[in-house]
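Protein Record: Sequence and Backbone Structure Tokens
======================================================

Structure line: whole-number tokens from a learned vocabulary of local backbone shapes, matched to residues.

Purpose: to set a sequence beside its fold so the mapping can be learned.

___
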Amino acid sequence: TIYSFDNIIYINLNELLIGVQIRIYNLNGEKVYYEAIKNQSNKIELNVSKGIYFVELVDGENKIIKKICLN
């Protein structure tokens, strides 16, 4: 599950997905965040402008992309 509230992104994953890379991009395609997931529950506080962002989870060749709105 991936969702946002204010400038915080919450990511709750299955334990099998621990270690995947998370990348967050703005609408211009600029990477604003990058990290390897270390826990099942993650809270990412971003210091970015309000707007639409794309959260990308990457595990080798597999990729999940979710669009979120930061208020």
Notes: Residues 46 and 68 are 13 Å apart (CA to CA). DSSP finds no helices and seven strands in the chain. The mean pLDDT is 90.
